[in-house]
Amino acid sequence: MARGGYGSGSGVPLSDRVRSDPAASSPTTPPERSGGDGEDAAGRPGRHCWVTVPVDGPRARPGLLLEWRQGARGRWEGRVVYSAQLRPGRWALVEEWIPAELLASAP
């Protein structure tokens, strides 16, 4: 009987398949930010931030900073997820790389 085409599996639950490769994070942390890989003080991934110029308008929106990277010109960018009203009355999640100067720390 077919099992859905996923093979026999490795026997490891998805919750235990988290990448913890330190080489996957950025080589140096942004000088003006702590937790350069987007981790909070307890080492958990993700940290609250404010997107000062969201895709849907001029009002700042709360977001979740997932990681940092240093761009080709040496400028820092944060990978952020936040909600935006892309159509009247319809909200969607937006994930994008945003320049560090357009992000603000959440209190």
Overview of the molecule:
The chain has 107 residues and is mainly beta. The protein contains no helices and five strands. The chain has strands spanning 47-51, 61-70, 76-87, 90-99, 103-105. It has a five-stranded antiparallel sheet with strand order 4-3-2-1-5, with no helix packed on it. The protein is globular and about 45 Å long. Mean pLDDT is 76; it is low at 19-29.
Strand content: 35-45%
Task: Please report the distance between the alpha carbons of the first and last residues.
Answer: 55 Å
What general form does the structure show?
globular
Supply the helix-strand structural class: mainly beta
Counting DSSP H or I runs of 4 or more residues, the number of helices is: 0
Order of helices and strands: EEEEE
Mean pLDDT: 76
Oligomer description: single chain
pLDDT below 50 for ≥5 consecutive residues: which ranges? 19-29
Helix content: under 10%
Strand order of the largest sheet: 4-3-2-1-5
Q: Please compute the radius of gyration using only Cα atoms.
A: 17 Å
Main beta sheet strand tally, sense and closure: 5 strands, antiparallel
Number of strands: 5
